[in-house]
Amino acid sequence: RWVLSLQCKGSRNFMSALRRAVEVDFKDRAKHRSQGLYLLTTGVPDQETHTISAYVAEVCRGFDLQLHVCLFSVLKGTASSGIAPARCATPLETAKAFKEIVQAAKGRFHWFGEAGIFESDDITSIISEMEKAKNYSQKCAFLVESLKQRS
Q1: Does residue 11 lie within any of the structural domains?
Q2: Residue 49 belongs to what H/E stretch?
Q3: Which positions ≥6 away from 25 have C-beta within 8 Å?
Q4: Three-state DSSP class for 81?
Q5: Does some domain include residue 139?
Q6: What pTM, to 2 d.p., does this model score?
Q7: CA nearest 37: which of 23, 48, 50?
Q8: Cβ distance 98 to 69 under 8 Å?
Protein backbone atom coordinates (compact mmCIF):
# COMPACT_ATOMS: atom_id res chain seq x y z
CA ARG A 1 0.00 0.00 0.00
CA TRP A 2 2.83 2.38 0.72
CA VAL A 3 3.70 2.47 -3.00
CA LEU A 4 0.41 4.21 -3.75
CA SER A 5 1.43 7.14 -1.56
CA LEU A 6 4.75 7.73 -3.35
CA GLN A 7 5.30 10.79 -5.48
CA CYS A 8 7.50 10.94 -8.57
CA LYS A 9 10.62 12.88 -7.60
CA GLY A 10 14.36 12.61 -7.40
CA SER A 11 16.98 11.77 -9.97
CA ARG A 12 18.22 8.83 -11.98
CA ASN A 13 21.06 8.20 -9.55
CA PHE A 14 20.53 4.47 -9.62
CA MET A 15 23.59 3.57 -7.52
CA SER A 16 22.52 5.86 -4.69
CA ALA A 17 19.02 4.38 -4.59
CA LEU A 18 20.31 0.81 -4.84
CA ARG A 19 22.84 1.35 -2.06
CA ARG A 20 20.12 2.74 0.16
CA ALA A 21 17.85 -0.19 -0.58
CA VAL A 22 20.41 -2.91 0.10
CA GLU A 23 22.47 -1.28 2.84
CA VAL A 24 19.76 0.47 4.86
CA ASP A 25 16.32 -0.89 4.00
CA PHE A 26 17.33 -4.58 4.08
CA LYS A 27 18.57 -4.54 7.69
CA ASP A 28 16.54 -7.64 8.54
CA ARG A 29 17.51 -9.55 5.42
CA ALA A 30 18.91 -12.46 7.46
CA LYS A 31 15.34 -13.24 8.59
CA HIS A 32 14.16 -13.80 5.02
CA ARG A 33 14.98 -16.67 2.67
CA SER A 34 14.94 -14.51 -0.44
CA GLN A 35 14.22 -10.93 -1.37
CA GLY A 36 13.54 -9.00 -4.50
CA LEU A 37 13.77 -5.41 -5.61
CA TYR A 38 11.62 -4.06 -8.40
CA LEU A 39 12.87 -1.05 -10.31
CA LEU A 40 10.11 0.78 -12.17
CA THR A 41 11.76 3.18 -14.58
CA THR A 42 11.34 5.16 -17.77
CA GLY A 43 14.98 5.68 -18.66
CA VAL A 44 18.59 4.62 -18.44
CA PRO A 45 20.53 5.22 -15.18
CA ASP A 46 23.10 8.02 -14.95
CA GLN A 47 25.92 5.60 -14.11
CA GLU A 48 27.70 3.29 -16.53
CA THR A 49 26.07 -0.10 -17.00
CA HIS A 50 29.22 -2.10 -16.23
CA THR A 51 29.66 -0.28 -12.90
CA ILE A 52 26.08 -0.98 -11.86
CA SER A 53 26.26 -4.60 -13.05
CA ALA A 54 29.44 -5.24 -11.02
CA TYR A 55 27.89 -3.73 -7.88
CA VAL A 56 24.61 -5.60 -8.35
CA ALA A 57 26.41 -8.93 -8.89
CA GLU A 58 28.43 -8.40 -5.70
CA VAL A 59 25.41 -7.38 -3.61
CA CYS A 60 23.20 -10.20 -4.91
CA ARG A 61 25.94 -12.74 -4.23
CA GLY A 62 26.00 -11.68 -0.56
CA PHE A 63 22.41 -12.79 0.06
CA ASP A 64 19.52 -14.15 -1.95
CA LEU A 65 18.50 -10.94 -3.70
CA GLN A 66 17.11 -10.52 -7.18
CA LEU A 67 16.71 -7.24 -9.01
CA HIS A 68 13.80 -7.10 -11.45
CA VAL A 69 13.35 -4.19 -13.87
CA CYS A 70 10.12 -2.91 -15.38
CA LEU A 71 11.02 -0.42 -18.12
CA PHE A 72 8.18 1.75 -19.36
CA SER A 73 8.87 3.48 -22.68
CA VAL A 74 7.10 6.81 -22.83
CA LEU A 75 5.97 7.96 -26.25
CA LYS A 76 7.86 10.92 -27.70
CA GLY A 77 6.16 14.22 -27.11
CA THR A 78 4.41 13.02 -23.96
CA ALA A 79 4.56 15.51 -21.11
CA SER A 80 6.67 14.10 -18.32
CA SER A 81 6.29 16.63 -15.54
CA GLY A 82 8.14 15.63 -12.41
CA ILE A 83 10.25 12.98 -14.15
CA ALA A 84 13.97 13.67 -14.30
CA PRO A 85 15.33 13.58 -17.86
CA ALA A 86 17.46 10.54 -18.73
CA ARG A 87 20.96 10.76 -20.11
CA CYS A 88 21.03 10.31 -23.87
CA ALA A 89 20.07 6.78 -24.82
CA THR A 90 17.67 5.29 -27.31
CA PRO A 91 14.95 2.98 -26.03
CA LEU A 92 16.93 -0.01 -27.40
CA GLU A 93 20.12 1.14 -25.64
CA THR A 94 18.17 1.61 -22.43
CA ALA A 95 16.66 -1.87 -22.68
CA LYS A 96 20.07 -3.39 -23.42
CA ALA A 97 21.59 -1.67 -20.37
CA PHE A 98 18.85 -2.91 -18.04
CA LYS A 99 19.00 -6.44 -19.47
CA GLU A 100 22.72 -6.53 -18.62
CA ILE A 101 22.05 -5.25 -15.09
CA VAL A 102 19.23 -7.75 -14.56
CA GLN A 103 21.41 -10.66 -15.74
CA ALA A 104 24.04 -9.69 -13.15
CA ALA A 105 21.30 -9.70 -10.50
CA LYS A 106 19.72 -12.99 -11.66
CA GLY A 107 16.44 -11.11 -11.98
CA ARG A 108 13.85 -10.59 -14.69
CA PHE A 109 13.41 -7.85 -17.29
CA HIS A 110 10.10 -6.48 -18.54
CA TRP A 111 9.80 -3.75 -21.16
CA PHE A 112 6.45 -2.26 -22.04
CA GLY A 113 4.81 0.93 -23.20
CA GLU A 114 1.49 2.36 -24.15
CA ALA A 115 1.55 0.20 -27.29
CA GLY A 116 1.90 -3.02 -25.27
CA ILE A 117 4.62 -5.42 -24.18
CA PHE A 118 7.90 -5.19 -26.07
CA GLU A 119 9.77 -7.85 -24.12
CA SER A 120 9.24 -9.83 -20.93
CA ASP A 121 11.33 -12.60 -19.41
CA ASP A 122 8.19 -14.07 -17.86
CA ILE A 123 6.33 -14.18 -21.17
CA THR A 124 9.41 -15.64 -22.89
CA SER A 125 9.52 -18.40 -20.26
CA ILE A 126 5.81 -19.13 -20.68
CA ILE A 127 6.15 -19.32 -24.47
CA SER A 128 9.14 -21.64 -24.08
CA GLU A 129 7.15 -23.92 -21.77
CA MET A 130 4.26 -23.92 -24.23
CA GLU A 131 6.60 -24.86 -27.09
CA LYS A 132 8.04 -27.73 -25.01
CA ALA A 133 4.52 -28.94 -24.19
CA LYS A 134 3.51 -28.75 -27.86
CA ASN A 135 6.61 -30.71 -28.93
CA TYR A 136 5.99 -33.31 -26.22
CA SER A 137 2.36 -33.62 -27.28
CA GLN A 138 3.39 -34.11 -30.92
CA LYS A 139 5.89 -36.82 -29.91
CA CYS A 140 3.21 -38.57 -27.84
CA ALA A 141 0.73 -38.40 -30.72
CA PHE A 142 3.36 -39.84 -33.08
CA LEU A 143 4.11 -42.66 -30.61
CA VAL A 144 0.43 -43.50 -30.19
CA GLU A 145 -0.05 -43.48 -33.96
CA SER A 146 2.94 -45.76 -34.51
CA LEU A 147 1.67 -48.17 -31.83
CA LYS A 148 -1.76 -48.27 -33.54
CA GLN A 149 -0.12 -49.14 -36.87
CA ARG A 150 1.81 -52.05 -35.29
CA SER A 151 -1.31 -53.73 -33.93
Answers
A1: yes
A2: helix 49-62
A3: none
A4: coil
A5: no
A6: 0.71
A7: 23
A8: yes
